[in-house]
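Dear support,

We are seeing what looks like truncated structure output for some complexes. This example has two components. We would appreciate it if you could run it in full and send us the complete token output so we can diff it against ours.
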Amino acid sequence: MFEAIQIALGQLGQPTAIAAIIGGTLIGVVFGAIPGLGSVVAMAIILPFTFGWEPATAMFLFAGIFGTASTGGAIPAILLNTPGTIANVCTTFDGYPMSRRGEGGRALGLAAMSSGVGTLFSLLVLAALLPVAKLLILAFGATEFFWLVILGLIAVTMASRDNLIKGLAAGGVGVLLALIGLSPVFGDVRFTLDSEFLYDGLPIVPLVVGFFALSELIVYTSRGGTVAQLGEGAKPGFRQTLRGAWEVFEYKRILLRGSIIGTVIGAVPGVGGAVANFLAYTTAKQTSKTPELFGTGYAGGIVASESANDAKDGGILLPTLTFAIPGNVEMVILMGAFVLHGITPGRTLLVQHLDIVWAIILGVVAAQLLTTVAVVGGGGALAKLSMVPVRILAPVVAVVSFLGVYAVRSNPWDILLAVIAGLVGYMMRRAGFPLITFVIGFVLGGTAERSFVQALQSSEGSYAIFFSRPISILIILGILFFVGSPAIMPWLRRLNAKRRAARGL
Amino acid sequence: MSALQRVNFVTILLLLLIAGTLVLASLVYDFRQRIVPLIIGIPTVLLLVFLLLGTFFPRLGRIAEGAMLGDMSDTESVGGDAGRDGNWLRIIIIAGWLVALSAGLFVFGFFLAIPVFLLLFFKFESKLTLFKAAASTAATALVMYLMFLYFLNIEIWPGMIPEIIDEYLGGGRIPEL
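Here is the complete output from our reference environment:
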């Protein structure tokens, strides 16, 4: 293993490798920052161009892209209330209110440092777990996947600050819409009305861009002014960003918990950064002594969200590199890159190309460090974007959003779908329906159905399988904790306070 | 009924229509294919019906709106964003700009619709002078085209109008809906 690390380090020092990492980082941050694009689009576009490159150099480029996109996604999430990627949704809860107070630089510093720490933590775990990864992955079957998705949905509903009934209803509609189109489980199409457009289901990018970017654009453009409403003496600059970056270490427990959640959830294929993001945020809120601060521009909220969504990078590499089980679409493209460069994914990769595995790990480390330094260094300047009058910013955001929507599938109907989603999203906002639960329901709906049916098939129709496996039971207990905690936590706090009072403390 | 209550009612009705249609449509499929739509759909429809009834019966409405998450019910309520929004006329105008842009993109393509939209928006909505609006349009459009055409190498939709300039203006084949 040490020989492979040495080879990878040697490759990392090459000028082409350095250029690939810088290029990948730049592409990752820019694509992450443009709502609707993200690392999947970036990797898909770049993939053919790497043909003929040295495999390690190509891997450095891809590591730069997927390792930094969610940090890039935090930039519009904080400054414009528009998450660059779905994994940045919870960052908007506290990042945007902070930005509106004129503390955008501080929020960016918090996000960048949390992302950096989260990534490094997860890669350390990945390095340590590579030898024992097989046991971990094989322990998860279809039932565990099903419960994990349910846990994600419940966590999202609890994380939203809106009405519980409306949150659940919106999540339900999201799941139902996710079932439209070709079912990967049955091989048949459902609910398409013979429409070719709906054959592959409703596309996610126009929905997300419409719901988050366009509906928010209506909100702030109709209001006028600037995105940020400066408090007295609050001027975003380098010092403010640096202060935010150091402040991360005041939230050590949230940071550690977010990193652990991100790594573990990331390691479970098909679940991904969005669930890690919501789960970390909700856990931080549920276990906080001051839950009322979450959603008001609280630093801990950003730390939880960003540490988790970047920590998923290390976790997600685990099943991809060890068993050729791609954790998400990014990893599918990465595996495509392996094949393009003559490397067979899976165990062969670990046996014959361990240097490539380490090149990816070191590439992500280097790219994340670069991004953290760049965002902390340039965060103040970026934060000034929130001072631009919305009447100037709005048309640019609209144009970029539509270009991003079209770029993914080159289908002009997607543009119209994004507008419809934007208008419906705006109405849902006004009516108090949390958009987040709708979108996460949509994202996880297909996975929930697939896992549910596979579990039933494996048990020959017996529902007992959902309650009989140890890991399933652990996840169910987690769900019960989330559902019950709003009632239990205040009761526990009161009980604790009474005990302290009785002891005369 | 206030404007906000009307929006609440219409939104619930819309979501109910979507969920109800999908639940009913699922009944034509076999058991395996309809089980998840029914498991998720029926409770969703019931929740939406409850919310809809809440718009007619104030007491029920208070229960529905009060179903917050314990001590997490800090900031949002019905129309939680309402305080951040402008008046309805402004909202309709901004939504109109977006609808116009999307229709313009669809019909005339990115090369024509984007500069026209930017120029009109900067001039009439942003209230810039004609010179500043034109300069801002040129700068924004140039950056967009450079990034998407040359950096990302993405083929840009030329619009559904008859072909005027090959690959740039008109002649786009609309995919089947």
